[in-house]
Design brief:
Layout (H helix, E strand, L loop, with lengths): L4 E9 L5 E10 L4 E5 L6 H8 L7 E6 L2 E2 L4 H6 L1 E4 L11 H11 L6 H10 L15 H13 L5 E5 L7 H16 L3 E5 L3 H7 L2 E6 L2 E7 H8 L2 E7 L16 E2 L5 E6 L8 H10 L4 E8 L2 H10 L3
Parallel strand pairs: 3-8, 3-9, 6-7, 7-8
Antiparallel strand pairs: 1-2, 1-4, 4-5, 9-10, 11-13, 11-14, 12-13
Helix pairs in contact: 3-4, 3-5
């Protein structure tokens, strides 16, 4: 099956000379949730805006469901739903009216049953006739999703979907996104919440300085790049790490009651057995051992801090 989105050798340079995107290549499979991560100014919004036709494309080719966004713009755009970060709705309209109107903008015939289902799926049905200005922030965020889904797109972009909402509402948004994927919608989200990507995404893409520096299946990414640490709780605190243990590059806990050993969890030999033997040789006894693995946030921070 062909990908729902295919990006080939895409670059974008503004008149100022700023290279916003540099030779980006990416394919998004149908039915997946893809998280695009990157610091501010990395190129996330430029890439989404280019795909959605908000800004003119630069070099390269973008196909949405097989349609070129430049040569076959109308068909490509009909396949896309966009939920921007900003809440942009008519404060004096109602959810029913604004979703129905958005559907009509794409030339779709009226379909009250579909509008009703969309509002119910997003827990907005009871507010269908309420003025938007009287809705809560979380409801307005869900209404933006309903508008984006009004013309039945196959590909949905969510730009910071849970920005400005509390933890409980954020988790509700996650459930909504999972439900959309279950209904057959492919989802690309940008987020500053690393936990959001770790919780929902099938694959992760990291963009920095306009370059897509990594695309990987989430669990494989954590497995490949995530470091493991062994925390050794000591029976007696130590002032310094003995020279005989220098090869292990141990970190001493602040109060000296533990040592931390960082290693590659995928390696055939981790060095733990030798370390424990050398600890005994150095006269250091321990009470307990704990292992932890790097999170997606640790990996992200490490990648974006690397020099260009």
């Amino acid at each position: 099956m062909s990908p729902i989105l295919s990006i080939s050798n895409v670059s974008k340079t503004y008149r100022s000379g700023h290279h916003a995107l540099k030779n980006v290549n990416l394919e998004i499979e149908r039915g997946e949730i893809f998280a695009l991560l990157g610091p501010n100014g990395a190129g996330k919004t430029t890439l989404i805006s280019l795909i959605c036709g908000i800004i003119k494309s630069g070099e390269g080719t973008v196909l949405v469901d097989g349609h070129d966004i430049a040569r076959d713009y109308r068909a490509a755009r009909e396949s896309i739903g966009l939920v921007p970060q900003e809440l942009t709705t008519d404060a004096f309209e109602t959810p029913w009216a604004t979703v129905s109107f958005s559907r009509g903008l794409f030339g779709k015939p009226p379909n009250p049953a579909f509008v009703e289902k969309t509002l119910k799926d997003l827990s907005l049905w009871e507010k269908k006739d309420t003025k938007i200005r009287n809705l809560s922030g979380g409801m307005k965020r869900r209404l933006m999703i309903a508008k984006a889904l009004s013309h039945e797109p196959q590909l949905l972009f969510l730009d910071e979907p849970s920005a400005g909402v509390d933890v409980e509402l954020r988790k509700q948004m996650w459930e909504i996104v999972r439900g959309l994927r279950a209904s057959g919608v492919t989802i690309i989200l940008t987020t500053h919440y690393i936990q959001e990507a770790e919780e929902m995404a099938d694959r992760i893409g990291i963009i920095n300085h306009g370059e897509l520096i990594l695309v990987e299946e989430k669990t494989a990414l954590i497995r490949k790049l995530g470091k493991k640490q062994l925390r050794i709780e000591l029976n007696d605190p130590i002032e310094t790490v003995p020279e005989s243990l220098a090869a292990y590059r141990l970190e001493r806990a602040q109060n000296g009651d533990a040592l931390i050993y960082t290693y590659d969890g995928t390696a055939t030999r981790t060095g733990i057995t030798a370390l424990l033997a050398d600890l005994a040789q150095a006269g250091i006894s321990f009470a307990d051992l704990h292992t932890t693995q790097s999170s997606l946030e640790d990996i992200f921070v490490d990648l974006v801090r690397r020099p260009k």
